[in-house]
Design brief:
With 103 residues, the chain is mainly alpha-helical. It has one domain. α2 packs antiparallel against α3.
Length: 103
C-alpha cells in the first residue's frame, strides 16, 4: 500500500486485527475472512459452519426468535455477516419483521 503525500506512516506495536483471531462470532468470522485471509483454513471453515447454524437455532415457525424484533434483527445481522445470501429462514424472519415491527 502506497503512502499518500503529506501523511505519516505509523508503525503499530501489535496487529489490531489479532483481536479477531479466534473469534467465532459473526463479526469475528467476517473479520477473519476479509481482513486476516483465513477463509481457506479448516479451522475457519469449522468455526463458520458452527456459527452459521447457531443464529438459526430457536427460530419460531412464524419466522421470529422469541417473538422479539430485537432478537430477530440480531440473528438476521449475524446471518448477513456469515451467509451473505437469502435462505428460507431469512425470508420468514424478514416477513415477520415487516408484519410486526413496522406497524
Amino acid at each position: 500500500m502506497e503512502q499518500e503525500a503529506g501523511t505519516k506512516c505509523v508503525k503499530l506495536p501489535h496487529n489490531p486485527y489479532q483481536i479477531f483471531k479466534a473469534s467465532k462470532t459473526p463479526a469475528g468470522l467476517y473479520a477473519r475472512q476479509k481482513w486476516l485471509g483465513e477463509s481457506d483454513t479448516s479451522e475457519w471453515q469449522d468455526d463458520f459452519h458452527e456459527t452459521v447454524l447457531s443464529p438459526m437455532n430457536g427460530q419460531s415457525d412464524d419466522g421470529s426468535w422469541n417473538h422479539s424484533p430485537l432478537e430477530s434483527i440480531r440473528r438476521l445481522f449475524g446471518m448477513h455477516l456469515t451467509l451473505r445470501k437469502r435462505t428460507g429462514e431469512i425470508e420468514k424472519a424478514l416477513g415477520w419483521l415487516m408484519r410486526h415491527a413496522l406497524n
